[in-house]
Amino acid sequence: MSAAARDVWGYEPEELIGRRYIDLVHPDDHAKTNLCAAQIVSGAAATDFENRYIRKDGFLVPMNWSANWSAPETTMFCVEHDMTERLASTEQLRASEERFRSVAHSLRDAVISADARRNIIIWHQAAEMV
C-alpha cells in the first residue's frame, strides 16, 4: 500500500489513515461516489465504478474501482486502478483513427476498411466510382 499510495495519490500511508475517502474525491464526483458507497454498504458489489481523485499535488487521477462490503468487519474493501494511461492511450487511438479517416476521405482512390469481424468501418465516395 505504501508505494501505491505515493504513486497514485502522492500521499504517504500515514497521511491517509483516518481521512474520509470522500475528501479525496473530486467535488463533481461526490454524489455518484456517495450513492455507490451506499449501495455497497447495502450489500451490492461494485465493479467498474469510475470517479476522479485529487492527488496531493492537485492533479486529478481518473480511477476505476471494484468494492465489496464486509458486514462482520464493517469495512469496505476496494481495489482501484489508475486509468490515466489507459485514457491517454484511448485518446491517442481516437486521434490516430481521426487522422486516418481524414486522409482516407481526401484520396481519389477507393478506400474501404473492415474490422476483424469483416464489418466495413470506412467507405468513402471514391469507392463508389471504382
Concise account of the structure shown:
It is elongated and about 70 Å long.
Structure description:
The chain has helices at 2-9, 13-16, 30-41, 84-106, 125-128; strands at 46-54, 60-70, 75-82, 112-114, 120-123. With 130 residues, the chain is α+β, with helices and mostly antiparallel strands. Strands 1-2-3 form a three-stranded antiparallel beta sheet. The chain has a two-stranded antiparallel ribbon with strand order 4-5. A hairpin with a 5-residue loop joins strand 4 and strand 5 (120-123). It starts with a helix and ends with a helix. The mean pLDDT is 84.
Considering the chains and any ligands shown, give keywords for the structure.
130 residues, two-stranded antiparallel ribbon, alpha+beta, single chain
